[in-house]
Amino acid sequence: MNSLNRPYTVVLIVPTGIGAAIGGYAGDALPVARAMSQVCDRLITHPNVLNGAQLYWNLPNVLYVEGYGLDRFAQGDWGLKSTHQNRVGLILDQGIEPELRLRHLQAADATRATLGLDLTDYILTDAPLNVELRTASSGASWGTIGNPDSLVRAAETLITQAKADAIAIVARFPDNIDSLALNNYRHGQGVDPLAGAEAVISHLIVRQFSIPTAHAPALMPLPLDATISPRSAAEELGYTFLPCVLVGLSRAPRFVRREKESFNLGRSSDIIWGDEVDAVVIPETACGGSAILSFSQQNTRIITVADNKTQLNVTPESLGIQAIKVNSYLEALGVLVTHRAGINADALRPTLSSLKCFSKACD
């Protein structure tokens, strides 16, 4: 960490369920996060970037923050407090079949025995969650929960009685996903049909309890396909997507509500607030989210990446947001390096225009 100045802090966002060319599949934005973590002191990102089913990577300076919590952080309502270890509570949907449930429990036990994670005993929801999947006119995916109160009750029990610091949820998702959409996704095209509904599930618990939360869908294994895209292949490795969620939540920062009285007395050095973010990196056509709108009102550099195409068309220009536009994440890394060093990026180009007079007195 830079000892002479405050930590250089970056937020990496790849919204879920919008068919992002990078980050729209099975943890395929994780290489971007790994690279970006090397050019900043603190990288804040969300489960869609870091979750790769049974694949994950330990990044000590990366904070795993659920999307709703990231929105509240950007708004300045919540701070992020790093922790060495969270005790993770596990919620299983009553609608999961016994054999599939056992697969998930074995995966959870494996993370305890092999990775040393701290989990509470699990809880079953008192009713099936009845997840339903939907597709918006834009092509983005979303979904609904038939029994949200059952999910809330299960989370409350783990928080109040089992003393969970974070919540992992496994909900039974429909197997009868549109065959064309699923086939496109498995072959590296189109939109993840599950992602939008997953966000709805985790948002509910974070909004209700202000606690780190992430979700893994329970599905029956799909038929073997030798032509699967590498970007989707992480989901072909086993019976569950749960391991990456448990690893991410095990050290996810806790949320700290901003109280005016204590805030005015001074900031704690171990809590990060939204106005400390130096730069945000996001796909060029996905700038309409709450977090970006909030960061654009602060002294935060917005960097948009053109070649990470999505199903959306919400550009910074359409919202009046000033942004640095780059073609690739490789270029974005260069912009971050120069920004952190306090260097005007124009100085690295072969031509540099002369200064011009700002006032009319020069005429």
From TrEMBL:
<protein>
    <recommendedName>
        <fullName>DUF3326 domain-containing protein</fullName>
    </recommendedName>
</protein>
<dbReference type="Pfam" id="PF11805">
    <property type="entry name" value="DUF3326"/>
</dbReference>
<dbReference type="InterPro" id="IPR021763">
    <property type="entry name" value="DUF3326"/>
</dbReference>
